[in-house]
Amino acid sequence: MSSKGAKLAYRPIGLLGGLLAGTVSGAVFKQVWKRVADQDDAPDALQSEYPMYQVIISAALQGAIFAATKAAIDRAGARGFTKLTGTWPGD
Question: Where does the chain cross the membrane (predicted)?
Fold first, then answer.
């Protein structure tokens, strides 16, 4: 399989992986935030009752968790794809 064909064939797997990463990282972030901030919900940028530093820390933590989860799921999907097809989808 050509690298162009592999990328095209992998696209649906990557899309599903992104959706899964969003779901998993959201659940992980919610649990981490509960423990770190002792609050059930993270602050939203437009909620005036939270100080700026708390909004920024929350957003940075959420972004880091999402990026790490997405990378792990993408890598696992690419490795599984390679085992099935013999072609790495990202090169």
Answer: 50-73
Q: What is the pTM of this model?
A: 0.84
What are the residue ranges spanned by the domains of the chain? Answer: 3-85
Amino acid identity for residue 34 in this structure: K
Closest CA to 65 of 16, 35, 18, 28: 28
CA angle 59, 18, 78 (to 5 degrees): 125
Residue 45 φ/ψ, nearest 5 degrees? -60, -25
Residue 9: pLDDT over 90: no
Closest by CA to 39, choosing from 23, 58, 52, is 58
DSSP conformational letter for 91: -
